[in-house]
Design goal:
Blueprint lengths: L2 H14 L6 H15 L2 H13 L6 H13 L3 H10 L5 H12 L5 H13 L8 H14 L2 H14 L7 H13 L3 H10 L5 H13 L3 H13 L6 H14 L2 H13 L7 H13 L3 H10 L6 H13 L3 H13 L12 H13 L3 H13 L14
Helix pairs in contact: 1-2, 2-3, 2-4, 4-5, 4-6, 5-6, 6-7, 6-8, 7-8, 8-9, 8-10, 10-11, 10-12, 11-12, 12-13, 12-14, 13-14, 14-15, 14-16, 15-16, 16-17, 16-18, 17-18, 18-19, 19-20, 20-21
Pfam families: E_motif (PF20431), PPR (PF01535), PPR_2 (PF13041)
GO molecular function, one term: RNA binding
Protein name: Editing factor
Amino acid sequence: MKPIDSIRVFANWVSKNIVKFDDFTYVFVLGACARGGGTLWDGMQVHCRVIKHGFLSNVMLGTTLVHFYVKCGGFVSGRKVFDEMSERSVATWNSLISGYCARKEHARDGLFLFLEMLGGDCGVKVSDTTLVCVLSAVARVGCLETGVGVHGYTVKTVCDVESDVYLGTGLVDMYAKCGCLDSALDVFMSMGCKNVMTWTAMVSGFAVHGKGKQALKFFNDMIESGIVPNSVTFTSLLFACSQAGLLEEGLYLFHDMKTKFRIVPLSHHYGCIVDLLGRVGHLSEAYEFIISEKVEGDEVLWRSLLHACRVHNDIVMGERVAKILISIKPETSLEAYDNTEDYVALSNICASAGRWEDVAAVREVMIDKGMENKAAVSSVFS
């Protein structure tokens, strides 16, 4: 049964008022809400019933409430439930920590909560799951010093880190994203068991830091080891080729992904190829690629190509792409759609060619449509 169906059955029973629910019922219903079966408002109504029937003292139910709130983005409510619990299990702590660590904007909150778990008298022991979540948070914020500290704590508390594929993969990912590729490689080589996520984490590390050839070498080693790549692996590989300007290798990988590995390309795969073709100046090929793959409705691809046109000063292709962008019908509501940047890009392209009458015409259209060019904003952290 799908989560939404579970919630509908529960709502039907509530409306008839013929069934008396116990705490386990609410655990399952909140779990269904957390898995996408309902909205934040649906779960809040279930929470009200939990309070009304006096089930908040149940640790499992409280933990499920915390899990539901952080999954649905209600971090303030989730933390409030957590703070008000008289008893917490390691699963309770993990629910809130993992929720924080899954969002970059809350990753530091997850690290602070982890320190609170270590320093306070909470009566629970840090688990492998806790450490995996914390390592992902460190990778998100890019704080190498904190990551080294967590690694040291992991070695002291976990008997055999090398045999735990999830902890090992978390360490590889953390070191790679923090720019310490040598340490990531050391952890990788020390691991006795590696899965597709481990290999992908290492490939991604090389890709992010512009080491395209090393990423391709690792991919070949991965295939020889009998590990089958997935969609994320190819995203990292294509990104690596794009950053390093490896045109033939990138096109070959894209072909193999579709034919040999039977992976259906997604938007980011197409985006990497368009970006790769644009970087090396093959603008006509990028245009034909978008048309031939029947993804001409993807605005991101056209904007990537438009940027390449400006870099290579191809006025004719740039004007063509800009007009396509302007003509694309929005999938969302018209009120929420803002393509001001496309008009600005067209205006800039005309200006580069010295066609000032066309610039004035574009600006006039923008004024008629009530568009305003948003000023750029920069943030400096001391």
